Amino acid sequence: xxxxxTNPLWREASxxxxxxxxxxxxxxxxxxxxxxxxxxxxxESDEYYKDYKNEYILKRHFNVVDKFWGGYLIAFDNTNLAxxxxxxxxxxxxxxxxxxxxxxxxxxYLGFRGKALPVILKNSSFLIETKGSSKVLLLMxxxxxYEIKNEKGENLSYxxxxxxxxxxxxxxxxxxxxxx
Length: 180
Fold this sequence. Notes:
Elements: H1 10-19, H2 23-33, E1 37-41, H3 55-61, E2 63-68, E3 71-75, E4 82-85, H4 89-93, H5 102-110, E5 113-117, E6 119-122, E7 125-129, E8 135-138, E9 147-150, E10 158-160, E11 166-169, E12 175-179
Antiparallel strand pairs: 1-3, 2-3, 4-5, 4-8, 6-7, 7-12, 8-11, 9-12, 10-11
C-alpha cells in the first residue's frame, strides 16, 4: 500500500530522499512515513526518472539489500505501518509540522511511539494486533471513508494527526481491522 506518495508532507520528504546530504534527516522521514524500502534508479536503468542527487549518501549510510532493473533497493531500519501510542503523550507533546524546525518536528513526532504493532493484509483489509494498546498510530493517510472496527465488528473512532496519519482509539480491542 503506497500512502507515502499521497501524504500531505510528501513534497518535503521527497526532497530529503532525493537530494539531502543529511542521512539523519533521510532516516527520520523514513520512520515518520513508514517507508520500509526505497528503489533508486541508476544510469543504466530504462526508467526515465534518475533524479537522486544523493546516491552516495544513500549507499553509504543505508542498507542496500538488492540490485536489479538498473537500480538498487535500500531497506530502512526501525520502520513499521502501525505503532502503539504512549499513553497521554500525543495530546501533550505533539506539535504541528514545522518546516522551519524540521528535524525537531520529526523527532517530536517519533517520540510518542511505543512498540511496533504487527499488521497483516487480509481480504483487502489491514488487521492490526493491538497487543493491549489503547491508542494506535497507523501510518496511512487519513480518509473519512475508512471502516475501522474491532474484532467484534464494532466501529472504532479515529482522527487525523498533524502529519496526515490516523490515530485509532482501540480501547480494549485485541485486533483493529481497517478497510473501505
